[in-house]
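Researcher: Please generate the 3D structure of the following complex. Treat every line as part of one assembly.
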Amino acid sequence: QQQVRQSPQSLTVWEGGTTVLTCSYEDSTFNYFPWYQQFPGEGPALLISILSVSDKKEDGRFTTFFNKREKKLSLHIIDSQPGDSATYFCAGLTGYQNFYFGKGTSLTVIP
Amino acid sequence: EAAVTQSPRNKVAVTGGKVTLSCNQTNNHNNMYWYRQDTGHGLRLIHYSYGAGSTEKGDIPDGYKASRPSQENFSLILELATPSQTSVYFCASGGDTSNERLFFGHGTKLSVL
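Model: Done. Output below.
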């Protein structure tokens, strides 16, 4: 059973546009939700994260929203740039310190 | 900045051969993880460790062994490599406390012929 579902699988946006990535999860014990960004040939790196006690976390052009009732979270990128082109993974963390990752979204930002 | 180093970066192995992927971290993290990444599957957890001497099975452990001889080193071992194990493997450390990030290595691209 897949613990974290992520959509879309791939996405193309124009430079300057807003990107929205979404995830849903099953396990109610998840309490921490990081988003990782991965460039080709590199390992994933933490982009932004949110705790289950919060509903919004902002960091520059990146904002993550969390809806506990619906078990959903999203990542919004405003003023998307070609340098944002990467694969994005959402994840959920249980109290057992095991991260469950979504399958990823491949984002392409066209100049 | 925390550092996780994987070796080798690329590996070609023959079916039935033994493969060892190595990972070293200088972060003094207790927790270390091995993931494989495949198109359409994202990151899947193979084995993880809570500290030296400990190894635990992840979601897809079949065909893999792990070894954690020290705080810094965590190895993934394929005793009898198969073509289905062709993938990109990532080691990570971190997550020792709630909300602590994972630090990933650059990955090892393994091809089993």
